[in-house]
Amino acid sequence: MKKNNIILGIVLILIGIAYLMNITFQVNYFSFATLWPIILFLVGVMFELKFFRDRSSGGNLIPGGILMVLGLIFMFEKLTGNRFSNYIWPFYTLSVAVGFLQYYLFYKKDRGILILGLILLIVFIVSFLSILLENIFPWMSGNLIFPLILIMAGILVIVKK
């Protein structure tokens, strides 16, 4: 059996199940408002598959990684009714970091791409931690994170001779 036939069969089964659930439970799965994050994710997967199939065009990894992560973020937002939109914004930075880090890991070991990916990853981590810490410790605002990082970096510079 051909691989394409198996994939097509699985897609048809999943669409049939979704349509059956739509009729049975009155959930509208087939509106563009519901499907656009999945479409975005699948476009990212197609970029990824294009690279991993022939390994010739590494440029597909960057938009592939970005679109896949953005698709997941938007799916999460749709499923939670945008309740977490105040907390999820650092993940947009993560999507770009994933694209650049994939390019570095799987295609070309370009130091500039690695540095850019790591800077974006650090921006994501610092931003997300500041949001988490501000919610756990309300007295600690996001304004305290940057000075604390500078103080820790200064201590490391002094201690490390």
UniProtKB/TrEMBL annotation:
Keyword Heme recorded: no
Ranges that cross the membrane: 7-23, 29-47, 59-76, 88-106, 113-133, 139-159
Keyword Amino-acid biosynthesis: no
Keywords: Membrane, Transmembrane, Transmembrane helix
The protein's name: DUF5668 domain-containing protein
Organism: Clostridium amylolyticum
